[in-house]
UniProtKB/TrEMBL annotation:
Location relative to the cell: Cell membrane
Record-linked CDD domains: UDPK_IM_like (cd14265)
Protein name: Diacylglycerol kinase
Keyword check for 4Fe-4S: no
Length: 123
């Protein structure tokens, strides 16, 4: 039976996975910067806590799907180093999940920011 890892080791491994994804995946870097810009704008506009929570949840959804996508791509590359139709299908599906999350994040961002930005512009 495999020995259990300590909680601290579990969290260290999880942070390592996040850090590696941020350091080596271009799209993850884009998502992190976009999330930081959104949160900065939300703070500057003094959005209500409910809107901030919605934005945080949305950003987390995009970042989590990007990490999952990276994990799936790595596992598929390990299992099928040569091109295979099923490998392509798995990788395309996981990338599609990120696209869905990112598209809905943009939509939610528009809904949350529309009124505050219009008010700021005096429209």
């Amino acid at each position: 039976m495999k020995p259990r890892r300590s909680w601290s080791r579990v969290f260290q491994d999880a942070w390592s996975g996040i850090r590696e994804t941020v350091m080596h995946e271009r799209n993850m870097k884009i998502h992190v910067v976009a999330g930081a810009v959104v949160l900065t704008a939300a703070l500057l506009l003094r959005l209500p806590a409910r809107d901030m929570a919605l934005l945080l949840l949305t950003i987390a959804m995009v970042l989590a799907t990007e990490v999952i996508n990276t994990a799936i791509e790595a596992a598929v590359d390990l299992a099928a180093p040569e091109w295979h139709e099923l490998a392509k299908k798995a990788k395309d599906a996981s990338a599609g999940a990120v696209l869905i999350a990112a598209a809905f994040a943009v939509f939610i961002g528009l809904l949350v920011f529309w009124k505050p930005v219009m008010a700021l512009l005096g429209l």
